[in-house]
Amino acid sequence: MNLRELARELRFIGALLDERDATYVWDGRFRFDLADGWYLVVSADFPGRLRLDACHHSGRSGSLWCIAADRSRLRDLVLAAKNEAVALVA
Length: 90
Known about the structure:
Layout: H1 3-17, E1 23-24, E2 29-35, E3 38-46, E4 49-56, E5 59-67, H2 71-89
Antiparallel strand pairs: 1-2, 2-3, 3-4, 4-5
């Protein structure tokens, strides 16, 4: 996955989360805030594949992968992470 493709996927994720910006964390990972203390870290794990880590404060609570071109699965994973984080802080 090249930088242009990654940027396109990050914009897609940002639109799903209603977030304009992602924070660059380190080593090619980008962070989106989900809910109080919860965030989603996105990285290009393998060519054409994205890794999504659901994190709470400084710890990772789960990881999922998807093919970057599979927008339906990517949407489902991102929205599920957001919904779960919102439910956990309610």
